[in-house]
Amino acid sequence: MTNYSDYINYFRALADLLLANTPSHRTFYEKGLDEFLNTLTIDGNYPAMLMGRNEFRLTDTGFDNVKKERSISIVIFDHVDDIQDYDKIAVAFDNSENVIDKMYNKLRADKNNPQCADFSKYIDLSNIEVLSVENEGDGNYGYLFELTIQTTHNTNII
Known about the structure:
This protein has helices at 4-19, 33-39, 86-111, and strands at 28-29, 48-51, 55-60, 66-79, 123-124, 130-135, 140-152. The protein is an alpha+beta fold. The protein has one domain: Phage minor tail protein U (Alpha-Beta Plaits, 2-Layer Sandwich), CATH 3.30.70.1700.
């Protein structure tokens, strides 16, 4: 059984690997997309990863085959001090895309690695749409992508 905290720990570990996230060099945040789009104030470093709150759906086919389909939103973004400097904005998008490419490759490798988190083999990587996101008020630019993970739900009564 996988819990919300398991996903947080997994994506924090990805930020540790891809963005050098540490307690003293913070690049991983658990905030919602609304906070990113409205007033995201972070005391950290860039590029950064924001893991939005995840949601899930339980589906029951009636044959004791219950699935939990979880949707996880991730934003990778970089900061630009001068929002009128379009060259720097392009670099911020490039930096964010580079991280997403590396993250996708790591997710793909983990999906096929039996030593990784059990849920990683259920990540659907077949068709991920990546959307640009901008918060000009804070000078943050990057991409949002949403992962779908469908696992078997334990139906044992406790």
